[in-house]
Design a protein that fits this description.
Blueprint lengths: L2 H15 L2 H20 L10 H24 L3 H15 L8 H15 L7 H11 L6 H13 L1
Helix pairs in contact: 1-2, 2-3, 2-4, 3-4, 5-7, 6-7
């Protein structure tokens, strides 16, 4: 069963369990899937591939993280808590992310492999790493690691 179908089934389960928060998050995801299909000039009821589904979920996770940051800056912890709850549900659909230590090890091995020592080529190196770690690691964390590894 594809990820898209699995999420549809989980919506039914959330309805049966009367889990309002989970149901809201899943409905939002399914709406985003429809929007993604339409934006790719496909029929609204057409199923997305697992890769496309993960891209949409990743976008939703990023939105929640940004919202949490903004709500905390604005002193709205009540709204930040709701976003955190939604974020934890969304993260269950994403593959396990790499830890900072794993990213550091990967970046250092790739740096040695490519002979990357010139700070001027950092952006090109970052592009290569980001492509390879897409979906496996948080982009912000990867950028942070590359900034510290290349400078040192």
């Amino acid at each position: 069963m594809s990820l898209h179908q699995d999420i549809r089934e989980q919506m039914k389960e959330a309805m049966k369990a009367r889990d309002a928060l989970r149901l809201n998050v899943i409905r939002g995801l399914l709406a985003s899937f429809t929007n993604e299909a339409v934006s790719k000039k496909r029929k609204p009821d057409e199923e997305l591939s697992d890769e496309e589904v993960l891209t949409v979920i990743g976008r939703a996770v990023k939105q929640r993280k940004d919202s949490i940051e903004q709500f905390e800056k604005g002193g709205r912890t009540d709204l930040a808590e709701v976003e955190k709850s939604e974020l934890s549900i969304l993260e269950t659909y994403l593959p396990q992310q790499m830890s900072k230590d794993e990213i550091v090890a990967y970046v250092k091995s790739k740096q040695a492999e490519l002979g990357m020592t010139d700070p001027a080529k950092k952006n090109q190196f970052m592009g290569t790493i980001m492509k390879e770690l897409k979906g496996k690691a948080d982009g912000t964390l990867v950028k942070e690691v590359i900034d510290t590894v290349i400078v040192s």
